[in-house]
Amino acid sequence: MRTRTMVSVGAAAVGLVATALAAAPVASAAPAASTATQCETNFVCLYYHSSDYATSHGGNYGAVMETAANISDFKDWYFYKSAYGSDGAGLSVKNNAAYVTNWHPTKTYRVYYNSGYSCVYACQDIHGATSADLNSQLKNNDASGKFL
Asked: Which UniProt keywords apply (predicted)?
C-alpha cells in the first residue's frame, strides 16, 4: 500500500510540474548581433569608450556592439567584449555608447538621442568608412540608430 501511495504522489507531482512548465511564459530571444570582436565590412560598431579615453588608456575602446540592422531602440542590445577591451560588457547600448565606427563603404549611419529614429533633440551622422566620437549631446545618450 505504501508503495502504491508513493507512486501515485510521484505521478501527481510530475503532472503538476509538466503543467507548470507548459503554462510558463516563453522568454523572448535578444536581438541578433554579431559576436565578432572587431567591426566587419558593412557593419557599424558602437563602443563603450570614446577615442579620447582609448588614446590615454592604451587603445581601450571597451566593449562593442556590432550590427548591420537598423535599431529603433537600443535598450535590448548589449555590449560584449571586443578586441579593444571589455569595459562595459553586458551593459545595454542605450545611453552607454561613446564611439562609433562605420564599416559600410557607402552608407551613412545615424545615431539618435531618442528612440524611434527621432532627431527632434539630437542626432549625428557617421559617414561610410569613417569613425567618430559621439558629440556631447549623444555621448552616453544614444537611443537608436539606422543606415540612411
From this structure: Signal
Strands (E), 3-143: 44-47, 64-67, 99-102, 109-112, 123-126, 130-133
Band of residue 27 on the pLDDT scale cut at 50, 70, 90 = very low
- List, in order of start, the domains of the chain with CATH numbers: 44-147 (2.60.20.10)
Handedness of CA 83, 87, 34, 67 (dihedral sign): negative
Residue with cell 579593444: 84
Cα–Cα distance measured from residue 45 to residue 29, given in angstroms and rounded to the nearest whole number:
21
**Entry pTM:** 0.75
